[in-house]
## 1
Amino acid sequence: MKKVKLGPRTLIYPLPAVLIGCTFDKRPNFMTASWCCIACSEPAAVAVSIKKTRFTLKGIEERGAFSVNVPSTKLVREVDACGLYSGRDKDKARLFDVFYGDLRAAPLVRECPINHECKVVHLLDVGSHKLVVGEIVETYMTEDCQVQGEPDAEKIDPMIYLTSVRQYARLGDVLAKAYKVGKGTI
């Protein structure tokens, strides 16, 4: 296969489309983010990269806490709106039924099937963005998105973001069983 050089690009697929929640000036705010990932399992932690100029980053730095809310595809309009407008200018929290968990510092979106309540453990300056690493202090899940107590991806129906074409999509077909399909390959 022939390869072509593209220069340094941030191409990793799929990217999640999540809502990052914070409190700034005593009011809840949410921004759309796709540069978000699991950072650690023990302790459970996530990382999100946020542009230094973002209103949400100021709230995270001010309170030392944030939330990662995993929306279903039903929330595509609201998720997109949270990426279009700044919390400086718009009250994006009015789009949702907001609740607070044990930390009482980071707003969570009740309509999202999964919510992670996080306390900041690291802020790393990486250029135009800061990498925010948060320990997950609690995870909330909509009860009917589980099967036998475990998360069900089909019921959660998470959104993914296709960066190069600026589109939202949903998960596709199952390809194979993990930790099984590769056995005997090597």
## 2
Amino acid sequence: MRIKPKKSLGQNFLIDKNIIKKITESYPISNDSEILEIGPGTGNLTEFFLKKEPKKILLVEKDKNLFLDLKRKYNKVEIINDDILKLSLKEIVNDKTIVFGNLPYNISSQILTRFILNKENLPLKVFIFMFQKELADRIIAKPNTSNYGRLTILANWKFTVKKLFDISPTSFFPKPKVKSTLLFFKMKEDFNLFKEPETLSKITKIFFNQRRKKIKNQFKGLFDNYLEIAENLSIDLNCRPQNLKPEIYYNLVHEFEKLRK
């Protein structure tokens, strides 16, 4: 049965076996490993995971036709027909789970944000996600560059992020118009603890919604004693959002949380 990719779901099936092999070898998989694959599509990546003989493979596929096709192919693999943005993962992942995903371009930033903010307190430590190259460049950007923004700060809060390699459009069916990039996320041993991780998302949104403007107005809107906070954190209020290192934003979350005691 030939499955036709759905443009509405951002489906581009990975077909290059050399790239698929590189992805499955990007992190050690043992017989003790558990794999969660997001958006397995036609199962091309799944085939290679099976050769690694991990303890468990769990597939999450939103498309009903693809789900049924995968069920026919893999009767020993657990497959869930659901939206990864809505599915509760609390009972189905653990600290042995490695998450892989050829993420749909149209919701990849939402999926990443869901895993970073981790409202379910999942014990996940490693993600290997594929993004549109333009988005990946934003995730790994450095301060004082045009790509630096909210996703950079969110991603680098809890994770060390490493670029693995770029992937040509010819590796997919149908061919997208842009390159893709595979990124590796590993949980840091030490990171800022927030009472409400969502606050980091809100504060970065406030700043980067006006990324071309000086940060003084954003400070005024967040803090009554903005001059004192700026002085304590050695922040120049004539800067723009992209000039502040991620650590500054994490400090601002702590300052904001003090006001809500």
## 3
Amino acid sequence: MKKRYMWLMISAALALTVVVGSTLAYLIASSNRVENTFTIGDVGISLTETTGSDYKLVPGAAVKKDPTVTVKAKSEACWVFVKVTPSTDLDSFCVYSIADGWTPLEGESGVYYRKVEAASTDTPFAVLKNNQVTVKDSLTEEQLNAVAVKPTLKVTAYAIQSDGMANAKTAWQTLNS
């Protein structure tokens, strides 16, 4: 009887082990592996001009000047800025306008901006309206000869991602900090 009782206990223990082991097998699970790859976004721009850098001032003439900011393909959405800096005497000789699509940045003289969405191709933006500067009709040779330094117009382009930037002012301040 003791042997039978012992075999019964061993059988019960073995059955309990199988039941518990099976239950544990049902409670254990695994998932597929998830792999995340992080890349760094990019904002690429260029500033080009095909019309050269030296111009003859003829009264009343429209002088071709085509500074163009190009947001490069695969750039992230971004704020694009241009800073247009005329020499102190340029307005005595010439007039120009900023091309459509640029907005003056409040509180910043000569700074204009636009928001550009991510692009799959290069996207150019003219800086000057009609790609020109117009020489004033009233310009005289004496005026030009009286100037020690010839008038200039300097254009500089900047860009920064738009993600994380609440507005153009914040983006400009971040660029200049």
## 4
Amino acid sequence: MARRRQIFEGKGKDIFEGPEPGTIVQHFKDDVSVHSGAKTGMITGKGVINNRISEHLMTRLSEVGIPTHFIRRLNMREQLIREVEIIPISVVVRNVVAGSLATRFGLEEGRRLDRSIVEFYYNSDDLKDPMVLEEHITAFGWASHQEIDEIIALSLRVNDFLYGLFVGIGIRLVDFKLEFGRVWEHDQLRILVADEISPDTCRLWDADTDEKLDLDRFREDLDGIEEAYQEVARRLGILPEGGVTDLEIPTIGAVRNISES
């Protein structure tokens, strides 16, 4: 599709004006940034893989009744999504001790939690994404108590579904990050899962070996980063034998009515 006006340039994605009102185009890049921008680089083919994985997972979530902003994939690096008002909070769901949870509490990485933990973080690179409480979110007007309840419920539903899906392909869903957005539908405000779901936003470990198949390989200077991302796509059944260059590009047709998404 023809390139449109750029709305936002992000660390791993760029956002462009969509072909019709209420839509935008999300372009996945190979660029990578961790530790609030302190470490940057590039993972060859990451944008192609993340676009395909996020499409697959968002579609599967929609099939079980979890609302998302995803409409359809446009090409190897771009997807059409609904334009939403992003709530400036990241929701992290943790199933296994890892990352900052291990550091903050002096816990051994890899311990399975008795119950999933839901945490909130304020999206701000300048402030290094500080952890916040529900009281902060409501006091600062970022979301209402009712919206927070809905966000938590949706996050746990996503966790339940994705955890089972990944178990089925030999992967542990250690933790993951979600973002949410608001959209008006038939005079009602609705909360949707937004952003992306990919190895950039999930900790994914091999169920047998605990080998890391996600962005932690870049954070920890491990080799085989490209292969790890491709392995996730392969196990999901969406990576052809020939690799990322053989990913099918769907025929670009008329954009379906966004109210059907």
